[in-house]
């Protein structure tokens, strides 16, 4: 007699949502379209959206009993995630972003990788895409190793243990063990959670066969606000975990400081305050910004920048927008801490 195959574990998808009326429908549809044969539920933590998001979600919930909602009046992502996780009933948690769309085999492959590796959390590749010329330029920047610092989940890395994971497919018991997401951290909460998971003796695993489509911010102002807030919270995390932050997080603030120092030196040279050998020596500060500009030009006006010249010019402007916004925010966060900083790009304004 052939032994029965072990039952597949149930899966709880958790999605924090605030002002995502243009994206949440497709995010939910890709979850429901997973080819996973086990039992599933979808738990959405609803913030006080003002754009009709909650009405869209409630429509899905009324049509499918697997979809349930919890209220997240505080709006913060880690709070919403914890509310959804605590309301879940299955041993596997799949985090989903309202701006994301899962490939049909994502859940099945992720659970196979969890079983094969014994990891506590598995993540894959973020594939950013755009619907408008600007959003497409941001997506190309996201997908570039130069754009977001070369994290494994932006592609190009081999399968194996990782520092963190994009979104994540977790064992619920491990989340309970490490006491869930830290609700005092409003950005970078995933990196901090994975730090505690690894400190508890578990592994975080990167599997490049797992792909998630991500739709980045749609306007300059939202992009600046998002990256500035993220930089501020990264500065806060440096204050809390000084020696554990990878070097790549320090590149944008180093660029900002080099640019500021270059401006000061240039003004002093032009006004004649700085002359002689001191002027020559301090001119070395131009090297960093000059190297950045050369690299930016080479990347922007290659195929990586886009198929047409307008696309490449947008890419040329988007990349430093991301880096400088993040870098300025980082410096602010290191100096004074994050305090009550929120990502206002999610407010719908």
From TrEMBL:
This is Glycosyltransferase family 2 protein. It comes from the Bacteria. It comes from Lacisediminihabitans profunda. InterPro entries: Glyco_trans_2-like, Glycosyltransf_2, Nucleotide-diphossugar_trans. PANTHER family: GLYCOSYLTRANSFERASE (PTHR43685), GLYCOSYLTRANSFERASE 2-LIKE DOMAIN-CONTAINING PROTEIN (PTHR43685:SF2). Residues 12-141 form the Glycosyltransferase 2-like domain. GO terms for molecular function: transferase activity. Keywords: Membrane, Transferase, Transmembrane, Transmembrane helix. CDD domains: Succinoglycan_BP_ExoA.
